[in-house]
Write the structure tokens for this entry.
Amino acid sequence: MLQTFLNLKKEEAMPTIFFYGPKLDKEKRKEMIKSFTDTASRLTGVRREAFVIYLRESNPENVGVGGELLEDLRARGER
């Protein structure tokens, strides 16, 4: 895999996908990474090996929506 990555063409070098969302168990993270990679590769024509996926956990107390904490919106039943 690393050798494949090192042999990528310049135009295929490391397209990156970031996903910010809730904590997921390992199986869901694996499924999400595979799904993002397969879909992005199919739509762009870039080889699967070129993609880098970052899954970032975001807690409601650290997210703002419409100028308010998501945690507060959820407490009021608005999200």
The helical segments are 2-6, 26-44, 70-75.
